[in-house]
Amino acid sequence: MTALQPSLVGRRALRGLAERALDPAVVRRLFEAAVLAPSCANKQPWRFVAIQEPALLEQLRDTFTEGNYWAKKAPLIVAAWTHLDYDMRLPEGRDFALYDLGQAVMALQVQVEHEGLISHPFAGFDVVRASKLLELPEGAILPALISVSFAGSADHLSEKHRDGESAARSRKPLDEVVSFR
Predict the structure, then answer these.
(1) Is the pTM of this model over 0.85?
(2) Residue 103 to residue 46: CA distance in whole angstroms
């Protein structure tokens, strides 16, 4: 049996984050990996904003929902966004922008794991305020923010989140999500 790729097996969306600054060369490599993702007709519709500047980071943190209190410790928040006009739009209504953005985000997360960091995408934020703060163009789609950090203590987490940090990984069985024909 072929072994699975360690960066995929080891990746977990943890919430115990360290506030320690990240090496700029490492941060750059995360995005170098992201832009290597495949895309329809090589349109590369993904866009990223790497937020590390303290004042902007604090303003962005103010857009997080209460349940994402843990993400406020991350020294890097990545805004992963796209626009439907940046990618293929087929006549029957298939838009590829979000699909291709997802591939780039996964490439970024695999590199995060490879660098010994953790990433946690989350949707709990005020998307209108965040988009305005980040000066995204009209029609931009910002489905997620991603916290990037070294692993840190879980002491500040709620009991539910603390339990989740060490819980066994839960995935649906293959026969529930794959049809082999």
Answers:
(1) yes
(2) 9
Burial group, residue 20, by CB count within 10 angstroms (0-12, 13-18, 19+): exposed
Q: Helix H segments across 23-172?
A: 24-34, 54-61, 97-114, 127-133, 159-166
The CATH number of the domain holding residue 113 is 3.40.109.10
Q: What is the C-alpha separation between 145 and 136, in angstroms, rounded?
A: 14
Residue 130 sits in which domain range? 22-152
Interacting residues of 78 by C-beta distance below 8 A, sequence separation 6+: 30, 48, 49, 50, 51, 108, 119, 145, 146, 148
Spatial separation of the C-alpha atoms in residues 113 and 132, rounded to whole Å = 30
Query: Which residues face 78 on adjacent strands?
Result: 50, 146
Q: How many structural domains does the chain have? A: 1
**Which tokens sit at 3?**
């072994």
Give the contacts of 181 (CB within 8 A, at least 6 positions apart).
Answer: none
Q: pLDDT tens digits for 80-122? A: 999 999 999 888 888 999 999 999 999 999 999 999 999 999 9
Query: What tens digit of pLDDT does each residue of 3-16 get?
Result: 888 888 878 888 88
Q: Is residue 31 included in any domain, yes or no?
A: yes
Sign for the CA dihedral angle at 160, 161, 165, 171 comes to positive
What is the residue whose two structure tokens read 């960066």? 7
Q: How confident is the model at residue 1 (pLDDT cuts 50, 70, 90)?
A: very low
